[in-house]
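Final report, section 2: Outcomes. Of the targets proposed, CXCR3 protein is the one most frequently requested by collaborating groups, and we therefore present its record in full.
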Amino acid sequence: MKDLRRYLVLKYIQYLVLSSPNAVSTFLGLLGSLYTIIILQSAKVSSKSTVVLISSLAKADILVSVSVVSEMVVWTFGVGTSSTAFTSALLQDLLTANTHISCLLLSCVAFEAYLITFFPTESRHLRTVKNARLTSRTIWMLVIAECALFQTDDLLKASSTSAPTRSPCVLLFHFSSMAAALLRSLSYFLGILLRIVNVYIYYKIFFSMSNR
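The predicted structure is given below as tokens.
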């Protein structure tokens, strides 16, 4: 559990403290996720709701691995200009999906820590493995849908120049563009809100433990 706590600290720094990812934090995050996945295979680790959330958090870095490997392949073999633009947008959407999934899962872990600290008995029926798995799947599905919307918007932008002025594709382009812009704005403000909420939760937990 100490290793899992260190991993959580690393992930909090990577996603909720640093304003933007960098090569060092990304590399350490990938190593930490790989190590965590190996640890979670051990029979010594009991199946708890927090462990389920941490497992899903570690698996989210698969998106980063795919992005890194794909960039290396593109850089090594080279592709056309249009393909490069499409690939770059896809890989950026994968990194965005990883960030959003990680931030949401870290917030779930923080909320669970809050419940354990202040409402251990009352919240026991909520802190179940089943609910943790359902929460993780819901977060993944929502973020994948977000990523699909961003990709659709990128594809329509790429094909909008060749589409007729009054074709249905233009209407679809405007709708997806507005939806993607709104979702990006909401994601930005949600990210700020999650940072504030996480700081508040751990502030309360820290001073609660100090008083004890």
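The chain has a mean pLDDT of 84.
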